[in-house]
Amino acid sequence: MQPSRRAFLAALPFVALALGARAEIKIPEVKLDILKQTVPTHRLDVADVTLSDGGAFRLFRAVPVQAAPPAGYRALYMLDGNGAFDVLTPQLLGAAQDVAIFGIGYPTNLRFEVNRRSLDYTPSLDGKGPVPDPQRPERQIGGADTFLAMLTGELRRLAEANVPVDPGRRFLWGHSYGGLFALHTLLTGSSAFAGYAAISPSVWWGGSLLQEKEKMFELPAGEVVPLLVALGDREQRSDDKTPPKIGPAPATMDLVRRLRRHHDLSLTVTVLEGMGHGATFAASIPSVLDWVSRAG
């Protein structure tokens, strides 16, 4: 049976976002309309920063106007910050009036910095750190642990400067490789964040890497961590030449089934109907903001 036009079109955003492993693609430039609009609930700013090790990032901040509670604001860290703030709207921020949002991006006018995210969001395959990507030797992979140290250290201090944040209510959102990074961070037992949102996570990356981490996953007794996994039902790997399949990615749902066995995870799973891989980037944000506002 031939795939429907709807299913075909739903798959296109994934091809546009993730085909980089097979072919050159054009990454769209950001418009960042949110920075040009009146936002009654948050103060917004953006700055390029250089870390002590020379790493360059672009920090986007949306800080609530309302006074912080005694413990500080809830905080949502969003990877691919350029793209995340490109799709934020005053209405979305209005639904998260008590959440400070920090976008961790890169100094580029593009939505995605494919070389940097390939390095920063992917775990080391052999525990020895970054190596050239076998498919794209000009790119490095395997820098997730180094990036996590920056994210929870110098980057965090810069992002939260003059912003009172509740240290027990920091959350992390990531899409695709960013979702892979979120799951990697969680499954290595890190206490870096209070909760994780993994959107269309690239669970295929590294073969059985995440499955092996899941086998060893254990949190301290009495600790429960919220985890949100969201994915479309029209997702497809860019190198899969078969007609688009309807239904959530089997590998992701298999990992979800394994994660449900862990009583120290408060797991929420959302299937975004009619969505391809790329489309879930923006489509997940309303539910994630609601989830952060309710979690913890």
Automatic annotation (TrEMBL):
**What InterPro entries has UniProt attached to this entry?**
AB_hydrolase_fold, Esterase-like, Siderophore_Hydrolase_D
Record's Gene3D superfamilies? alpha/beta hydrolase (3.40.50.1820)
Reply yes or no: does the keyword Transferase apply: no
Keyword annotations for this protein?
Hydrolase, Signal
* Signal peptide from the UniProt entry: 1-23
Signal keyword on record: yes
Recorded GO molecular functions are: hydrolase activity
> What family classification does the UniProt entry report for this protein?
Belongs to the esterase D family.
Protein name in UniProt: Alpha/beta hydrolase
Query: Species name for this entry?
Result: Pseudorhizobium endolithicum
